[in-house]
Design a protein that fits this description.
Structural class of chain A: mainly alpha
Number of helices of chain B: 11
Distance between the termini of chain B: 45 Å
Radius of gyration of chain B: 22 Å
Order of helices and strands of chain A: HHHHHHHHHHHHH
Oligomer: heterodimer
Number of helices of chain A: 13
Strand content of chain A: under 5%
Number of strands of chain A: 0
Shape of chain A: globular
Structural class of chain B: alpha/beta
Number of strands of chain B: 13
Helix content of chain B: 25-40%
Largest interface: A-B, 21 and 30 residues
Radius of gyration of chain A: 20 Å
Strand content of chain B: 25-35%
Distance between the termini of chain A: 27 Å
Chain lengths: 273, 304
Amino acid sequence: MTLVLARRAIADRRRWLIGWSIGIAAFVVVNIAFWPAIEDEAATMNEMIDRMPESLQSLFGMGGGIDPFSPIGYLSSQVYALALPLLLLIAALGVAGSLAGDEERGLLETVYALPVTRTRVVVERWLALMALTAALAIVSMVTVLVSTRIVGLEAGVGAVALATLSATLLTWAIAGIGLAVGAATGRRGVAISVAAVVAVASYVITSLADAGIGFFRHIEVVSLFTLYDVVETLAGVTPLGSMAVMLAVMLVVAGVGVAVAVWAIGRRDLRAG
Amino acid sequence: MDAAIVTRTLAKRFGASTALDELDLVVPVGGVFGFLGPNGAGKTTTIRLLLDLIRPTSGTVSVLGLDPRRDGVALRSRIGYLPGALDLPPRLSGRDFLADQAALRRRRLDAEVKVLAERLDADLDRPMGELSLGNRRKVGMIAAFAPRPDLLLLDEPTGGLDPLVQQTFRSLAREVVADGRTVFLSSHVLDEVQHVADSVAVLREGRLVAEGRIETLIAQLVRTFRVRFDDVAAPPPEPARLADVPGVVAVRSFDGEAEIEIDVEGAAGALLAVLATLRPTDLHCSEADLEDFFLGYYGERAPS
């Protein structure tokens, strides 16, 4: 397979890729640049945070026994807990939604009429999505590693790589849901909205469960963010086994999303542009 | 004779609306087959069913002896398709688009593309979003013709094309036929089909209403001639004088006007012979369009 469609989907986004790379790198640099100033006040601020109720702490991506103004706590709350996966997800959902979006605009009529299976179209678009988000994730990782070293924020290469991998797989899992909805409905708006709702609901459920609210502790198993325990990943306290399980589950969710997408688009009429 | 397309009681419903209703169609191999009908008659729906872009509600389809659903990839490798609503990636150049199309067919078509681009005078270097509708359609036409497919499905192919390109299009279609291949050409204007098709089928509201040789269809058409008599020495004739001329179905004159209208079914030779003796100053013939045909066919001609 020559991956004509995947390569085209990537080539179409050259400027998109440059723009997102600059955006993500700038975001990381700006946040980490404040570390030296924060570090000086860390002791006072940690004391202040410790006096806050635990529920509030967890909502802001803190907790888990890690001081928010420790190097790892800062990196987690400022970059990995929410902002980075959010940025990767927005980028990925744009790509996931384009399968349905291009169909709505009639741009795939000349592709589906070729000796090409619908499965191939879906799979190649998915491969493009994985490649593009992986590229952005690598940009974020390199920027984190370089800028933390410049400001003297201690973060291990392995820990940062694992956190980046978790954020990427979380993005793929949610994007897989978006791809499936887009393939099933042929509607870009529906695809992106459903995936965004899943992402926000997951985040809220996990945060409230972490805050110790009973109801959410019962249902937090349905939330993808529950698998994304990035503070502990960065601190290196997550056992390798459970880390592997978390990553595997996210990959399975993404894989099921792609499988559902293939199945659903094979069963329906394609939309005329 | 082998059939390129066979449909049996083919029906397609979208929710409550019926786009296609029990269509029985046989398109022979070789030749240009005109698929006529007003907008919304179900022409595009039929073509999209042949390509397995959409699935029938009931009935069967066979294209080049294959089932579009089961043998879709094998079938589509033998089909060239020009969509009616041709949407092309706006930032891509025609050249890149055509290269992708060839690659997805696992073919090398550079030579064919080059020849067609020259014949159609197509601009393959600019982003397609910057091209006029006519120039985008040229790219679409190249994509359909370049692989030399056994069957060409062309949905309203010459809309937006200038007459010179329409001429080229007709020669291309004839070359396909000379190869023993088949062109399936849908249109809502008879004129687009008239000069190139051998046989035609006429679709209306999802049903086949006429089928046969193009000459037979044209013989049933009603056209309106408007004839002026500006010369005071040669005033418009009394309608009764023309009513008996073979082919004339109606004659209308207007008080004090120098112009009369004559509806003619089929050949107009007899009428022209009579008119010549009446020294008219000008003559205009409306293009026989399909609406006229349907009105004539159903005897629903509205009073004018």
